[in-house]
Structures are given as structure tokens and as C-alpha cells.
Write a structure and sequence with these properties.
By secondary structure, this protein is α+β, with helices and mostly antiparallel strands. Helices cover about 45% and strands about 30% of the residues. It has 19 helices and 20 strands. Helix 13 runs parallel beside helix 19, helix 14 packs across helix 16 and helix 16 packs antiparallel against helix 19. The mean pLDDT is about 85.
């Protein structure tokens, strides 16, 4: 109608939705009407629409796939050889730009991926282009945060173009590196062990019975001990290398470990080709196999055997020494006892001579006879002391509750005549009741109090003081701790009993000699005695798991200190 009214022609396309067709029309005025000509363009539009849909689909795929994609064309030199100098980017997806940065069409590949040549990407692209064959490889690339990333790259040729696909394998690579480092660490730990460490997989038959074990790992100690490298061991079986385990029963033990899951551990003799030795073998189940740890115990076993031999020799020597000591003590007792009889006869005959024949003997003979009698008295005292000393070992009595106050009271009664003659003063504190041998306690205090009354200057009145106190912990002297087994116990307590005097004293440099047998610090004529008293005191304290010591200076008195376990 518009063409008729205006006479102006019309041309254009028209879509008829009711028929889903496209028409390319031309309308011109003619006398009495219009002339309409058209051509069907439906197929063209359908093709355009399909192409658009495919483009949209491709865009969606490129955007959605977790793969960086780039399409590139080769750039050749203008020289006669027309070699490939670079590649021009035709198209990339968003993931590619996220990883490698923005990339515009026509931009050089090496400008976008600055490490394309160093990473091997560029050479692989040329190779794929020239051979028209796909290439696959792995390359590293530093991310935007400067952390290292890894990609699996696929390069394929499509006519004059190359399609590059980059798959992120960074996590996989990191996991592989972690596994590698863990394996390297495990290998270092295993190789640093002085023990042999091996891992096996079970070899089973058709009925699932374990018929062998296959080596899968050995450490450096095992390599050195057997002289076999990993190539000589890994992949081989236990019975192939050590068939003896089938004979000595170890193989059956290993099978039992696999069946029950219970570990096996045992010391066994074995020969690795360098002579027989002792080894501690420990097997632990691991999945369908086991881990074997072998510790060389040869030196330890040899040391144990030497220790057993030395122990037996020591026990034999101790038994011999004990028997000899018992014989010696028995001899001392018998000898001391038997010597008294002839000595009593010497004294009796001497007394007869002095009483009946004094007037008939010359003065010189009488003097010699008196000296003989005095020597016999000293000899008798010495024999009694030796007899008393020997009785401390051969005639010990079970310990009972003993009041030391009563013991000392009895000693003072025995010494009453000496105390009165010398005008001695005794200062006595309350003394404890202890578990002890009453006879030996009497001997102890008899000698200590007797020495305090005896060793004083001529004309001096003795003053003897006895005190006691209970001590424990830090108050116990170190010498007592070292000298007694009781003192080393955590809750040990001792009665510390002191016998002090105002006598002649002694130089403490002689302290180590003071408690030995027959030791005297003064002449026989000056002070009577046999030199056995303090030796008896020491033996008494040894028998009671205690200790005796002394403190003194010349002419300043002496303090004898007794430590009795509570």
C-alpha cells in the first residue's frame, strides 16, 4: 500500500513466524498495482542461527572447562627459509587469561607466556606443527602470587592452527613432591638406623597359602651386612636368598605373624656369611606382608657370656674366700681357746715359783720371773681379746630389743672399782632402745667407756659423757651414707650415740689405723691394752649395719661416735 501510494520501491527481509520461513522481498509500483518478487532465504538464516548457537556453545564450553585453551597461528620469517619465529594468538578462554594474563588476538605467544621458550612449550609447538602430531608434556609456571604451578600441556595441530590445552596439575605435583619428600625422609630414617630393616609382601598360591615373601625394601644397614644391593634383593624372595629360614623355623613364625597379626620377637643365632652371630629378630604385620627388624646382639651376647663366666668365677672365689674366712675364724677361736690352757699352767707354775722359792732365788732371777708373769698376763688378755673378736662372727645371736641404758648401766657396774679409784665422773643422757645383739652392745660400750677411763694423763680425773640423738635425711653424714647400705635408703634414720672424754686424745691422721687389729698409738708400758678393743667395736658396728668413727686432737680429749640404724 505504501509503494502504491508513494511510488517508492521497498526491499528487505521478512520473517513469517507462522511458517518459520524467511523471504528476501522486492516491491515496485506498476500500472494498476505493485510487482512483488522474493527469494527464500530460510536456509541461510537457519545456517546462521546454527553457527551462532555453535559459537555460543563453544564459548560456554571454553568458559566452563577447567582447562586453559589457546588457539594460535604460526608466524614465519620473511626470509627464504620461512622458519617459524613465533605464534600469534587467535583466541584464548578465560581460564587461560586467569593463569597466564590477558591475551589479545594477534598478540605473540611468547609475549603472553614469557617462559614459553625456557619451559619447552615453544619447541613442542614447532614440533607438533611440523610433524602434524599431537604433543603432551608437563611444564612449570610461576603463578601471580609467585608460587610454582604445574600444568600438563597438550598441543595438537588443526590445519594452519595449533590448539593448546593447559590442565592444572599443581596439587597432584605437590602431592607427588610431598610423597617424594616423605619417602626420602623415610629412607633417611631407615638408613640412619644401625639395625637391619626390611619390608616384604607375602607370596601366596592359588589356595591363598603363604609360600614365600618378596623383598620390597631394605635399608643401608642390611645392604652393608649382606653385601647385596637393592637390585640384587628387591623383587626376589626370602627363600631364594635365605633358604635356611625354612629349616630353622623362622619362616613358619613369619607366616604365623601374617595369620594372627601378633608380632614375633626372638634372639637367634645366624650366619650372614661372616661367621655365626646372635641377632634379635622382630617381625610385625604390614597389610599383606611384614616389616622385619634385625638387631645385632653378638657383642652383647658375648659380653653376657663373659659376665656369666666372671660371675661364676667370682662366686667360686667368694665361696673359697668365705670358706677360708670361716676356717680362719674357727682357727682363731680354737687357737685362742686352746692357748689358754698352757698359758694358765705357765702362770700357775710361775706363781708357785714366786710364792715358794722367792727366798732361794737370786734377785735377778726373781725379777725375770715377775717379768715372765706380767708377759703371761698380757698374753692371756690378748688371747681373750682375739677370742672375743672371733666370737663376733662365729657366735652371733638374733637381734632383740635392747635397752642401751641398761647395757651402759651394766658396764658402769663392771667398771665401778676403776671409776672410784680414778675419781671419774660419768655424765649419762637417756639412751635409746634398739634392735641389736645384747652381748655385742655390752662389748661395744665396755671398750669405749674403758678407753675413756684409761687414756687420761697421770693424776687427771676422767670425765666421760654419753649422749644420743635421732638423725635422718640431710643430717646423716656423707661418710655414713657411703659406708652403710642402710644409709642409702630414702627413709633411713640413725641413732647417733657419742662417747666423749677429757683424755689424752690423738692425732686424726691416724684415724684409719685406729680401728684395725693390734693397732696402738701409745707404748705398752705407758697404757695397758692389746690393741683389739676398737677393732672389736668396729666389728660390732659392721654386724649391726652401722658405723663408728672418732674426732680428736692431742691433749684435747676424744669423741667416739656410733651410728646405729633405728
Amino acid at each position: 500500500m505504501r509503494v502504491c501510494e508513494t511510488g517508492q520501491p521497498f526491499s528487505g527481509e521478512k520473517y513469517y513466524p507462522e511458517y518459520d520461513i524467511w523471504r528476501d522481498m522486492m516491491v515496485v509500483a506498476v500500472p494498476g498495482g505493485v510487482l512483488v518478487t522474493y527469494s527464500d532465504t530460510t536456509a541461510y538464516h537457519k545456517a546462521q542461527e546454527a553457527a551462532h548457537q555453535q559459537a555460543q556453545l563453544l564459548h560456554g564450553i571454553l568458559k566452563g572447562v577447567p582447562v586453559g585453551i589457546a588457539v594460535v597461528n604460526a608466524r614465519r620469517t620473511a626470509t627464504d627459509d620461512h622458519r617459524i619465529a613465533d605464534f600469534s594468538i587467535v583466541r584464548v578462554n578465560s581460564l587461560f587469561e586467569t593463569v597466564f594474563g590477558p591475551a589479545a588476538a594477534g598478540q605473540a605467544l611468547t609475549a603472553v607466556m614469557t617462559n614459553a621458550r625456557e619451559s619447552g612449550l615453544f619447541s613442542r609447538c614447532i614440533l607438533s606443527f611440523q610433524l602434524n602430531e599431537p604433543q603432551e608434556f608437563e611444564m612449570s609456571h610461576f603463578m601471580a602470587d609467585q608460587s610454582a604451578g604445574w600444568y600438563r600441556v597438550s598441543v595438537s595441530a588443526d590445519g594452519d592452527q595449533l590448539i593448546l590445552a593447559f590442565t592444572d596439575i599443581t596439587e597432584l605435583k605437590r602431592a607427588q613432591l610431598t610423597h617424594y619428600h616423605q619417602a626420602e625422609l623415610l629412607s633417611s630414617v631407615l638408613d640412619s638406623s644401625p639395625n637391619d630393616i626390611l619390608a616384604f609382601d607375602a607370596v601366596q598360591d592359588a589356595d591363598n597359602r603363604v609360600v614365600d615373601f618378596r623383598y620390597i625394601l631394605q635399608n643401608q644397614a642390611k645392604r652393608q651386612r649382606t653385601g647385596r644391593s637393592d637390585e640384587q634383593v628387591v623383587g626376589h624372595t626370602m627363600l631364594e636368598i635365605f633358604p635356611i629360614v625354612k629349616v630353622n623355623g623362622l619362616f613358619d613364625e613369619y607366616v604365623e605373624v601374617l595369620k594372627t597379626g601378633r608380632p614375633f620377637r626372638q634372639d637367634i643365632p645366624f650366619d650372614y656369611g661372616h661367621g655365626s652371630g646372635w641377632y634379635n629378630v622382630s617381625a610385625v604385620k604390614r597389610n599383606n606382608g611384614m616389616v622385619l627388624t634385625i638387631q645385632d646382639k653378638t657383642a652383647e651376647k658375648e659380653a653376657e657370656e663373659k659376665l656369666r663366666i666372671n660371675q661364676r668365677q667370682l662366686e667360686q672365689a667368694f665361696a673359697g674366700l668365705k670358706a677360708a674366712n670361716e676356717h680362719l675364724q674357727q682357727f682363731a677361736y680354737v687357737a685362742s681357746h686352746d692357748l689358754q690352757e698352757p698359758l694358765r699352767k705357765i702362770q700357775s707354775f710361775g706363781d708357785l715359783l714366786l710364792n715358794q722359792y722367792t727366798t732361794e732365788l737370786p734377785d735377778t732371777a726373781g725379777d725375770l720371773l715377775r717379768r715372765m708373769q706380767n708377759a703371761a698376763v698380757r698374753m692371756s688378755a690378748l688371747i681373750r681379746s682375739i677370742l672375743a673378736f672371733s666370737r663376733l662372727t662365729t657366735h652371733q645371736q638374733p637381734f632383740t630389743s635392747v635397752s642401751l641404758s641398761d647395757v651402759v648401766a651394766g658396764v658402769l657396774d663392771d667398771q665401778e672399782r676403776v671409776i672410784q679409784q680414778r675419781n671419774a665422773r660419768i655424765n649419762l643422757d637417756a639412751l635409746p632402745t634398739v634392735m641389736a645383739d645384747a652381748v655385742q652392745m655390752q662389748q661395744l660400750f665396755s671398750h669405749l667407756i674403758g678407753n675413756a677411763l684409761k687414756y687420761v694423763h697421770s693424776g687427771q680425773s676422767p670425765v666421760v659423757t654419753l649422749t644420743s640423738r635421732l638423725i635422718g635425711g640431710a643430717a646423716i653424714p656423707e661418710t655414713v651414707l657411703l659406708a652403710t647400705a642402710v644409709g642409702r635408703q630414702p627413709a633411713a634414720e640413725f641413732w647417733e650415740i657419742t662417747v666423749a672424754d677429757n683424755g689424752i686424745g690423738f692425732d686424726e691422721k691416724y684415724l684409719d689405723r685406729l680401728f684395725q687389729m693390734f693397732q696402738r698409738l701409745h707404748g705398752k708400758t705407758q697404757y695397758e691394752g692389746t690393741g683389739m678393743g676398737l677393732a672389736i667395736c668396729k666389728r660390732v658396728m659392721d654386724n649391726h649395719h652401722g658405723m663408728i668413727t672418732a674426732h680428736s686432737q692431742p691433749d684435747q680429749g676424744a669423741r667416739f661416735v656410733v651410728y646405729l640404724p633405728r
